[in-house]
Amino acid sequence: MTRIIAGVAGSLTLKVPDAGTRPTSDRVRESIFSALDARGLCDGAHVLDLFAGSGALGLEAASRGAASVVLVDSAKPAAKVAQRNADAVAKAGAERALVVAQTALAYLGQTTRTFDLVFLDPPYDLPPAQVAAVLQALVPTLVDDAVVVLEQATRSGSPALPSDLELERTRKHGDTAVHWLARRPTAT
């Protein structure tokens, strides 16, 4: 069972797509959001959740006060489930998330939005080169002090990063590695 952990929609049970997704466990989400809350990064943030599946990561941020949330998933069944979940979280009083049924690269190639906080939870079997391509396409959408949270299989090792991103730290939770990335400061 996947649920919203805290905020205005706390304890709300989320629907999960029947197949093709691997929802982030409550334990891993609790760890991620504990760190984000400690840094004050959810409240008022503009959030992007790529490979959103049920939308649990982005909707957790919405429940905790994000100003806007975009959930992107290329699988139409997942996008439909994410839309139902977004509607339920909005009904509880959170900002309504925008759900986009597109690939991450297609969305990043056409959006004009910028983001403070980005979640990437690609399928564990997505080739590293494709993850690297998404990270490269993501860079122009990030504000200067943006935080990117990348979830991958521990066996994947450290992600290949574009020169504009740096690895702040990695936290391992069983077979899941959570990589905290930041935009490199631009030279002035």
Give the SSE layout.
Layout: E1 2-3, E2 13-14, H1 26-38, E3 46-50, H2 56-63, E4 68-72, H3 76-91, E5 98-100, H4 104-110, E6 115-120, H5 128-138, E7 142-153, E8 165-173, E9 176-183
What features would you describe in this structure?
It is built from five helices and nine strands. It has 188 residues and is of the alpha/beta class. The strands form two sheets. Strands 5-4-3-6-7-9-8 form a seven-stranded mixed β-sheet, with helices on one face. Strands 1-2 form a two-stranded antiparallel ribbon.
How would you concisely characterize the structure shown here?
With 188 residues, this protein is an alpha/beta fold. 29% of the residues lie in helices and 28% in strands. The strands form two sheets. A seven-stranded mixed sheet has the order 5-4-3-6-7-9-8, with helices on one face. The protein has a two-stranded antiparallel sheet with strand order 1-2.
- As residue ranges, the low-confidence spans are none
- Helical/strand content category: alpha/beta
Number of continuous helical runs:
5
Our estimate of the beta-strand percent is 25-35%
The chain-level mean pLDDT equals: 93
**Largest sheet, described in full?**
7 strands, mixed
Major β-sheet strand ordering: 5-4-3-6-7-9-8
Relative helix content? 25-40%
Total number of β-strand segments? Answer: 9
Query: In sequence order, what are the helices and strands, one letter per element?
Result: EEHEHEHEHEHEEE
Give the radius of gyration.
15 Å
Distance N to C terminus = 48 Å
Tertiary shape = globular
